[in-house]
Amino acid sequence: MTASPFAFAPTFMGVPHRTEIGDAKAVILGLPFDCGTHPHRIGSRLGPASIREQSQLLRAYDWTTGINPLEALGVIDIGDARVTSGEIEPSYAAIENAVETIASKRAVVVSLGGDGAIALPEMRALHRVYPDLVTVHIDAHTDAYPIPGYNTATAFSRAVEEGLVDVKRSYQVGMRGSTMVPGVHGHGLSLGYNVVPMAELLARGIEAVFAEIREAIGDRPVYLSYDMDFFDPSVAPGVCTPTWGGASAREGLAVLEACGGLNLVGVNINTVSPPHDVGGMSALLAATITLNSLQLIARQHQTPVGG
User: To which protein family does this belong (predicted)?
Assistant: First the structure.
């Protein structure tokens, strides 16, 4: 008997749920964690469930290549890491353990957040497997603020301090808007990141910027962190820190497509906040980013890096 097309499978696009990696080349991992410190918007802990729900609206085959990445990569959904929102240390440990378990099998971790703080434990785990890790961080904010502690504003500061990424070849793209403390742009540059604000991205053009990124990174292993507030709130209203002047849906998808050719070893889609979403549109867009990321990974496996 075949499954009913009207039955909701509680995994991403209905892929098999497994607790063992097996021969999967890409693994969906839910990270339903937020720090619980945002003064106005708490809800990204609910993001993974909403993204999975909205993923049922997607279709697997790519329009141009005809590739079904779910089949090509043997994608599985391993469920959620055992995190507790607001509890930093035990949740970070759980995230690190889950990510390292997947990455050590050389499967690509495709994680669903959760807020931006989850980037730090992910980079810790990926660095242990890939010591020459670099990051491409797509976001309205650098998350590399000159403040202490472990939170959504410091993940990429702590990553440099802990030596987790080759910062001189790491890029942050899409920054704009106001900040809660002064000197944020300068601090990101002082850490060594290549920071490309949204105004520069639009002025130079997506392809020109990402041609530079691909050239600088080469075949090094890449952690791609895609914060959904890179999009304009008119496109993705259900995020934790909506910031006007962001990408259209077309531009945001083009930015992801421009990451083609990078050696992706980890991808994170974060900051969907379902209580603030409208008709699930932000979660549906996040699910689309997830599926298109799997398409990039499938092409990567068809044409090995350096091949």
Answer: Belongs to the arginase family. Agmatinase subfamily.
Determine contact, residues 194/172, Cβ cutoff 8 Å.
yes
Q: What is the pLDDT of residue 280?
A: 97
Enclosing domain of residue 153: 17-302
Distance of alpha carbon 136 from alpha carbon 157, whole angstroms:
14
| Nearest residue to 274 (alpha-carbon basis) of 243, 238, 241 | 238
CA distance 188 to 96: 24
Q: What is the DSSP pairing of strand 134-138 with strand 171-175?
A: parallel
Is 12 within a domain? no
Instruction: Report yes or no on 8 lying in a domain.
Output: no
CATH number where 227 lies: 3.40.800.10
Report how many domains make up the chain.
1
Q: What is the pLDDT of residue 7?
A: 53
Q: Is residue 160 part of a domain?
A: yes
Instruction: Identify whether 82 is part of a domain.
Output: yes
Q: Which of 267, 257, 273, 247 is nearest to 140 (CA)?
A: 247
With bands split at pLDDT 50, 70 and 90, how would you rate the model's confidence at 2? very low
Neighbours of 68 (CB within 10 A): 16
Once rounded to an integer, what is the mean pLDDT over residues 144-159? Answer: 88
Q: Using the 8-state DSSP alphabet, how is residue 15 labeled?
A: P
Confidence bin at 180 (pLDDT 50/70/90): confident
Note the pLDDT tens digit of each residue in 95-117.
999 999 999 999 999 999 999 99
What single DSSP character describes residue 239?
B
- Cα–Cα distance, 22 to 119 (Å, whole number): 25
Confidence check: pLDDT of 305 > 60: no
Tell me which DSSP letter residue 271 carries.
Answer: -
Peptide bond into 114 cis (omega under 30): yes
